[in-house]
Amino acid sequence: MFDGKKILITGGTGSLGQALARRLLKTDVATIRIFSRNENKQVTMESEFHDKRLRFLIGDIRDKERLTTALEDVDVVFHAAALKHVPVIEYNPFESIKTNVIGSQNVIDACLHQNVETAVCIGTDKAVSPLNTYGATKLLMEKLFVTANNYLNRQKHRTKFLAVRYGNVVGSSGSVIPKFIEQIQAKKKITITDPKMTRFSITMEQALDLIMDAASSGKESEIYVPKLKAYSITDVKEALFELLDNTGEEIVGIRPGEKLHEVLINKDEIRCSWDLGNKYMIANPLRDENDIKRSYSNKISKIDKVETYSSDNVERLSKEELKKTITESGLLDAQK
Ligand SMILES: NC(=O)c1ccc[n+]([C@@H]2O[C@H](COP(=O)([O-])OP(=O)(O)OC[C@H]3O[C@@H](n4cnc5c(N)ncnc54)[C@H](OP(=O)(O)O)[C@@H]3O)[C@@H](O)[C@H]2O)c1
Predict the structure, then answer these.
(1) Residue 13: CATH number of its domain
(2) What is the domain range of residue 34?
(3) What is the tens place of the pLDDT at every residue in 88-105?
(4) What is the pTM of this model?
């Protein structure tokens, strides 16, 4: 799918963007354009990657003209640029609308203008029945992407717009595991919001598998959701105390905008969701079910349950699995 292709990653210097670029460079891609604002991050990435197929483009997704030029001759777009820190966004909501919503609309317009083949946006569980502004802006990003197909004049435009949706990547900046590791290594008590809190567990490799799979096998207007296990904050505490040291704990309460459990598919979305074996797919409710089945050669079935797909009602990682995930994430080495 990617051999000989020209790819652009918005937010290509971010943690996902870099991991995705690394994975794509293992294929025979023609070029990968990294599109983001900060020149220092681009210079550092260029020297670390040292691959002639990478091109570094300074630009802001709020600037449609710049995006349109950047997308000239591009085949596949991965849209990862976003403002994502919940407390920052609660304090600066207007800025998140400009980047996460209007910026995403610009990506769509620029893809249509340049007749890009496939565009995949990176969504989050926080967009499901959103409680905070970040989630609400990412919900709108998803909606813009999956409905962009509805307005296509098929003779004029060919772009396939798709979305993926997943939860916190283990070890991503601002998430609970690196925070606890930092606290334990500084001999401080770990700060627990609520011992009952649960989160879906996804590694960067699993996220990349989902994204690459969506880009290569996605049909149109779909949201792809991985099948994941979950962990509770208490599970994380116990695993880290065994791996590092027991420095004690302090309960600090749930922060504004935070949920006790995260949901990947809510109970209304379940009605138009399909089980594809290794993942779920939420179809555009405007699409005809028979059409959807035909496009998957009738090999798919509707999700066989009525409750939400939530981090408190899926299988939990065992303590050993969690310890292995943490160890393999490299977080313990990085922070030594
Ligand atoms: N991390 C997770 O656990 C997680 C989970 C689910 C979904 N997601 C989604 O995955 C995507 C990537 O997340 P991440 O963890 O890689 O984030 P990240 O490390 O914060 O990277 C964000 C990237 O976006 C760029 N960016 C921000 N605003 C921009 C703008 N206006 N124009 C152009 N580039 C801009 C940043 O570079 P500059 O600042 O230099 O522009 C950076 O390259 C986001 O859409 C996020 O919502 C993340």
Answers:
(1) 3.40.50.720
(2) 6-167+203-227+265-311
(3) 999 999 999 999 999 999
(4) 0.95
